[in-house]
Amino acid sequence: MTKDRLFYLPLGGADEVGMNTYVYGYGPPDRERLIVVDMGVAFPDMESTPGVDLIFADVSWLAERADRIDAIFITHGHEDHVGALGHLWPQLRATVFTRAFTGHLARRKFEERGLDGKTVKVVESWPGTVQAGPFRVGFAPVSHSIPESSALIIDTPAGRIVHTGDFKLDATPVVGEAFDEAFWRGIGDQGVHVLTCDSTNVFSPLPGRSEASIEAEIRKLAANASGMIAATTFASNVARLQTLASAGVAAGRSVCLLGRAMRQMVEDTVTTGILTDFPKTISPDEAKSMPREHLMLLVTGSQGEGRAASAALSRGRYLGLELSEGDTFLFSSKTIPGNERAVLRVVNALSRKGVDVIDDTSTLYHVSGHANRPDLDRMHEMLRPSVVVPMHGECRHLKEHARVAARNGFASLVAGNGSLVDLTGTVPKVTDHVEAGRIYLDGKVQVGALDGVIRNRTRMAMNGHVAVTLFLEGDESDGGPWADLTGLPGTGVSGKSLGAVLETELDRQLERSMGHGASEDEEFDDRLADELRSVVRRTCDTEVGKKPEVTVLISRSN
Amino acid sequence: MTKDRLFYLPLGGADEVGMNTYVYGYGPPDRERLIVVDMGVAFPDMESTPGVDLIFADVSWLAERADRIDAIFITHGHEDHVGALGHLWPQLRATVFTRAFTGHLARRKFEERGLDGKTVKVVESWPGTVQAGPFRVGFAPVSHSIPESSALIIDTPAGRIVHTGDFKLDATPVVGEAFDEAFWRGIGDQGVHVLTCDSTNVFSPLPGRSEASIEAEIRKLAANASGMIAATTFASNVARLQTLASAGVAAGRSVCLLGRAMRQMVEDTVTTGILTDFPKTISPDEAKSMPREHLMLLVTGSQGEGRAASAALSRGRYLGLELSEGDTFLFSSKTIPGNERAVLRVVNALSRKGVDVIDDTSTLYHVSGHANRPDLDRMHEMLRPSVVVPMHGECRHLKEHARVAARNGFASLVAGNGSLVDLTGTVPKVTDHVEAGRIYLDGKVQVGALDGVIRNRTRMAMNGHVAVTLFLEGDESDGGPWADLTGLPGTGVSGKSLGAVLETELDRQLERSMGHGASEDEEFDDRLADELRSVVRRTCDTEVGKKPEVTVLISRSN
Predict the structure, then answer these.
(1) Among A397, A446, A463, A469, the residue to mutate for chain B (most B Cβ within 10 A)
(2) Among A72, A190, B304, B496, which is 20 to 30 Å from A331 by CA?
(3) Backbone φ/ψ region at A129: left (φ over 0), alpha (ψ -120 to 50), beta
(4) How high is the ipTM of this complex?
């Protein structure tokens, strides 16, 4: 008889902020029943993933065990928790459970991919539960920066797991459910085996501030600004949209939404009954004819995204609206590491227009949606689990959180993506490592991070590309090799055209290669291609200091 | 008779942090004599300048007027003030004046480019001066984060200019000259027409802290750490190197320098007599045999640079040394916007090894080298100029600094790169705009930012590259077109090989194009190439959602 075990396996989110994808398993080793918690995306950057659209966790380990998956649970509707669902679900095909608002967004993910949205089942929050194999799972409300965020209370034969999802301790969240300390203390009293806990803000030393705490400052700003106000935040931060819009209206301003995500989110929250008193908005066309001091724009693009409304406004007119001297632009948001240059580009472009920009360094107009270190301490203490498993964060966050947990007297460990953690007893341990990579959505196609596609693109970005063509008839060449350059300077250190220098050197090499005995076989052609490639790289290195990617195309007359 | 005028013209540094390149002119309009202040670089990033090595100001405006340049002055030895000197000097060929330590570094810039280092003339600091055409220029010491930083006091027939260079108000700078408030008040008493003033830290609301203020904390850290300590900072921050090294020695640690720039800078400062009591260092080989708690490594790579010592240590063993559990890594530095991801990569890799990382969010171990807003207020007040010209900063910095100056009661304006500012009277005004672009050092070659070379590389990075080859004999093709793909997925949404789908579509197009009447002229070939290019882009878009860069090579038998 094999003893059943309980395990935790992060496939994404436990080596980065974003891409949350977690697995719990229970049963006899290698025959455990499985549930998946969240299927999120990470976002690409030009440095490591040029041209990539989205990044998902590699779920091949799960796909190979799809028949053992009893359910997928989504804690909340942020892209880094639900964004990969439509893309990866066809490999897993288990029922998806969510709360109502998250379900609304999750269904859209399905429909966008031509899948049946009915696969997403909406469940009531705690004390409601879903039985999924050996797991009984309930959605218990927590406060965060999108409505209906939930921790999962997961009862298993080996004890109870509380999986926090993203959360903060906010008693006055403006929109949605407040963090209910009494409830969570009650859960703690019932006994918690494992607390799997958000780690993203573990380095923030002060207690988190409430969403309500910034309301007064935003109202003051809206009332005192002389011209138009444009404010940006994540569209999914519904409480913030409400605060900004109300402040605008209180200051006699009409609210205009710019950017698809912004309009969509307000529509979604009104449809689903999340927002009941969001002010009536006006269209950009109506806004055009309003005095600017009576306007409040809510715009997409808090991260400086080139195609969002904020960047468009920074460049010039957008849908007939233009910011100018005396107007105010407010970043009611935090710049995510890696987006600084893009955000500063928007800030400086607006600044050049004479707009007063209030950037994210002011802490008056934004609060985080995650638990800071003292809040984590409180959460540990409310739940008093046997084990704290730090989740969602880079290695440095997980490690610091494990340290905080240990200091608070709890067993803990650092488990990165692919670490299978046995949680059966009171001492958690990593007992296995599974392949946990990244998959890139590249245009319409998923490519593996290690497939070489992106590596080749990065190389071309650094060093340019040369295409060499050569036509051979028998053992003679017709016209000699040609070189076509992309992304390389036209002139090298010799002062001559790089193309011309290359063709001279290619001619010479061709003569040498043919002189050694040409033959009409593939082996000869392969060797010749290698020799020509080397000549191109060597010559470019000498002339322009770059070793480009080289494609050699040798054609033979039939 | 034409009236003489005095002007200021930033060619770099007045729309960015870095790339400092300023011009002053005096004389009859369009016949002014010119001096250049600083010739610095900016640093590339993967997003906008992949593969680029360095960025310079475009000095073609100056080059066309090289006969009117009387001198080049370098305020201090940071790369963003002196780094372009060797690269751009051949276009300008004027004598370069510096103080001794800066001259040491500037001469190396010349020699690295095969130029005669004797062009750099070392001058004594104020009251020493150099006459350069109508300008009499003196180097007046200021405190900053590299030795012998100087403001320039520039006397002209239209009044005195104080050009601050980079500076802070530091009465206890650890190494080098303290900021001498009495001296600067004296200069103010003599009358200053224009204060051209560093703006980079204008958004920092608190008075700047002294270099000496962090000494105690660094000493405490060095004494209390249990294992090895590795600390990184800019190699040019000589005072910091001194503080770190002394703290190490005081804690019974031997100091080992890792990274070329670090060794070079310590050697330079000892050679030039800047550092007189830097501790004796040990080699990496000697360090290997020391107990780790007796070691203090000073390493390059505070910005997460992939090839620097810090990144090498984060990946594994470097020169026989390896950090592990219980060791400490200190960032005694600030992360420059845009480098966050690179720095976090190093932090997380070290964290994974069990190293305690103290990152740049702690303010205990680093102070800035620039004047904060209250310091700028003090500087304005010490010098009481007729005009404050904000210099060195992004648009947002210059604008805020102009606002601060106005609030302090001084005439001011925002002048970005290429703005020619007439400073003859007491009201500064932009009277002209000259072409002020960027030049990229790309390998060994300088290319213009708008030449398209980098744009093409960026496009390949985003969308991949396809090379199409076609051999034509008369009005028939030999073998049909071939396609060779780089940086594109092998399989598209049809499930077929993308290369095969492309060749089928290319065949079809070729047939259509030839059917419309083939002819053996260039016009036909150009049209055919365009048609084949469109087919490739359209087919790739359908199959993989990407429109690649396409090279079409049509060859004809003779």
Answers:
(1) A469
(2) B304
(3) beta
(4) 0.92
Nearest beta carbon to residue B457 from set A340, A341, A460: A460
pTM to 2 decimal places: 0.94
Whether residue B551 and residue A458 make contact (CB cut-off 8 A), yes or no, is no
Beta-strand pair B130-132/B135-141:
antiparallel
B78, B166 in Cβ contact below 8 A?
yes
Quote the minimal CA–CA distance from B556 to chain A in Å.
Answer: 9
Q: In this structure, which amino acid lies at residue A44? A: P
For A440, the closest chain B residue by CA position comes to B489
Model confidence over B160-207: pLDDT tens digits? Answer: 999 999 999 999 999 989 999 999 999 999 999 999 999 999 999 999
Write down the H helix ranges in B353-452. 373-383, 395-407
Q: List the structure tokens of B404.
A: 């601060």
d(CA A346, CA A343): 5
| E runs forming strands in A339-474 | 356-358, 387-391, 411-412, 419-422, 429-433, 438-442, 445-448, 465-473
Contact B59, B21 (CB under 8 A): yes
C-alpha span between B207 and A87 (Å, rounded): 52
CB nearest to A545's CB, from B444, B492, B544:
B444
Residue B66 CB neighbours (<10 A): 14
Indicate the pLDDT class of residue A210, thresholds 50, 70 and 90.
very high
The answer to whether the Cβ–Cβ distance between A553 and B557 falls below 8 Å is no
Give the span between the Cα atoms of A475 and A481, in whole angstroms.
Answer: 14
Q: Which of A159, A130, A134 is nearest to A32 (CA)?
A: A134
What is the count of residue pairs from A and B with beta carbons less than 8 Å apart?
220
How far apart are alpha carbons A107 and A120 in whole angstroms?
Answer: 6
Alpha carbons A175 and A159: distance in angstroms, whole number: 33
